């Protein structure tokens, strides 16, 4: 296969510079289609890969919300970007506590990578559930729904705009000789308000916004809830959050297109405001550490340790600390949790109601 870098050179030589959004989209498509990027020997590790406790607690969250929804049957259990399928496997195992839930739900995985679909198929072969795969969330059949997305929104392409004295200009990827370089569209275009200072960068997550519009519309019309967990912030913020990771190290986002994981930080305020436009309830945001502690992760760790060897118990403590610690570079604080739900669901476990919830629903 030709390298994506060669293909991008031809594309840019032929069509001219492309937007950062298109660059990210092409890189991510190649990246996820050609590998399993997770784990210690991969490029990055995610919460479900650190400990079974993560998926189990999300499973208990789903059971409780399903109960509050009035125990609908059928109910769609949807995951966006399931990676190796670990979270879903742990969630489904925890659901053994409630056989009625297991007979009511059908499992739907939204996944574009053929490589990861195979990993998910193998991981879930003994789950006792029939699994349906979809390329897009719009393809999941209608009906009450429970959805989870962990480290999914950060993998969707964003547009970037740079403040100039002419206004906001879109950031592009072009060629200088053989090298890919960042550039700017000459004409300003984006109505993003007054630029704060020259050089400031604004990110516009067009794909995430479109997805959130569809999802919140669904949850406004039919009962259900969605739980979103990701590396991100409550905006508005100015700055370039595009980053590339390879083998757990930061690399230049232009240096190895399609060979490194590209992400941006998720703008949770924009997601929540988009959802609120559709008359759904907003819950959170909380840090991952607060959320998992409210769901009882410490008690779960203690009960797992009762049946563990001393070495296993030490592993459980390490995993617990990694998931909930709130230091400036630690997952428990950097990762945030937001839920949106049908108006009839006044509360969900582990998250406070958010004032953005529209007053009249
Ligand atoms: N949720 C998993 C994996 C996160 S990696 C975990 O926590 O371990 C991102 C996942 O999203 C991968 O499974 C990737 O193949 C998938 N993905 C990325 N872009 C996608 C898109 N546009 N549509 C559907 N799936 C996508």
Mean pLDDT score, rounded?
95
Give the count of helical stretches. 13
Helix share bin: 25-40%
Unreliable spans are none
The small molecules bound here are:
S-adenosyl-L-homocysteine
List SSEs in N-to-C order.
HEHHHEHHEHEEEEEEHEEEEEHEHHHHE
Q: Ends: how far apart?
A: 53 Å
Strand content: 15-25%
What structural class results from the helix and strand content?
Answer: alpha/beta
Please state the oligomeric state of the protein chains shown: single chain
Largest sheet composition: 8 strands, mixed
SS elements, strand count: 16
How does the overall form come out from the CA principal axes?
A: globular
Q: Please compute the radius of gyration using only Cα atoms.
A: 21 Å
Quick structural gist:
By secondary structure, the chain is an alpha/beta fold.
Annotate the secondary structure layout:
Layout lengths: L3 H12 L2 E2 H14 L13 H4 L1 H17 L6 E6 L5 H9 L4 H6 E6 L3 H10 L7 E4 L10 E6 L8 E6 L2 E10 L2 E6 L16 E4 L1 H16 L2 E10 L9 E4 L2 E3 L9 E3 L2 E2 H9 L4 E7 H7 L2 H10 L3 H15 L6 H4 E7 L20
Helix pairs in contact: 4-5, 8-9, 11-12
Q: Can you tell me about this structure?
A:
- This protein is an alpha/beta fold and 361 residues long.
- The protein has 13 helices and 16 strands.
- The chain has helices at 4-15, 20-33, 47-50, 52-68, 86-94, 99-104, 114-123, 206-221, 268-276, 288-294, 297-306, 310-324, 331-334, and strands at 18-19, 75-80, 105-110, 131-134, 145-150, 159-164, 167-176, 179-184, 201-204, 224-233, 243-246, 249-251, 261-263, 266-267, 281-287, 335-341.
- The strands form 3 sheets. Strands 2, 3, 4, 5, 10, 14, 15 and 16 form an 8-stranded mixed β-sheet that branches.
- α7 (114-123) links the parallel β3 and β4.
- The longest helix has 17 residues, at 52-68.
- The radius of gyration is 21 Å and the shape is globular.
- The mean pLDDT is 95.
- Bound molecules: S-adenosyl-L-homocysteine.
- S-adenosyl-L-homocysteine (SAH) binds next to α2 and α3.
- S-adenosyl-L-homocysteine (SAH) is lined by residues 28, 32, 38, 46, 48-49, 81-83, 87, 110-113, 116, 150-152, 155.
């Amino acid at each position: 296969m030709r390298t994506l870098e060669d293909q991008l050179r031809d594309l840019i030589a032929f069509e001219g510079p492309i937007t950062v959004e298109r660059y990210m989209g092409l890189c991510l498509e190649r990246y996820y289609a050609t590998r399993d990027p997770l784990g210690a020997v991969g490029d990055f590790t995610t919460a479900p890969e650190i400990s079974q406790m993560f998926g189990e607690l999300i499973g208990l969250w789903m059971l409780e919300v399903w109960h509050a929804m009035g125990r609908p049957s059928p109910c769609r259990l949807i995951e966006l970007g399931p990676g190796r399928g670990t979270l879903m496997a742990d969630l489904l195992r925890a659901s053994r506590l409630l056989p009625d839930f297991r007979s009511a739900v059908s499992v739907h995985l939204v996944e574009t990578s053929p490589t990861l679909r195979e990993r998910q198929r193998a991981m879930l072969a003994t789950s006792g559930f029939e699994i349906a795969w979809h390329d897009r969330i719009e393809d999941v059949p209608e009906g009450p729904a429970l959805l989870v997305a962990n480290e999914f929104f950060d993998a969707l392409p964003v547009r970037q705009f740079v403040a100039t004295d002419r206004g906001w200009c879109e950031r592009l990827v072009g060629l200088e000789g053989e090298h890919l370089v960042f550039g700017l569209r000459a004409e300003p275009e984006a109505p993003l308000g007054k630029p704060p200072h020259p050089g400031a960068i604004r990110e516009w997550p067009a794909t995430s916004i479109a997805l959130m519009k569809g999802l919140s519309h669904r949850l406004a019309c039919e009962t259900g809830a969605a739980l979103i967990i990701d590396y991100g912030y409550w905006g508005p913020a100015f700055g370039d959050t595009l980053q590339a990771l390879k083998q757990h190290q930061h690399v230049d986002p232009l240096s190895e297109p399609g060979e490194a994981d590209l992400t941006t930080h998720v703008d949770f305020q924009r997601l929540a405001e988009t959802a609120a436009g559709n008359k759904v309830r907003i819950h959170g945001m909380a840090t991952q550490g607060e959320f998992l502690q409210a769901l009882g992760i410490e008690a779960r760790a203690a009960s797992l340790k009762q049946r563990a060897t001393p070495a296993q118990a030490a592993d459980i403590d390490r995993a617990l600390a990694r998931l909930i610690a709130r230091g400036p570079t630690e997952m428990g604080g950097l990762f945030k949790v937001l839920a949106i739900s049908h108006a009839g669901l006044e509360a969900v476990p582990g998250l406070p109601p958010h004032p953005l919830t529209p007053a009249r629903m």
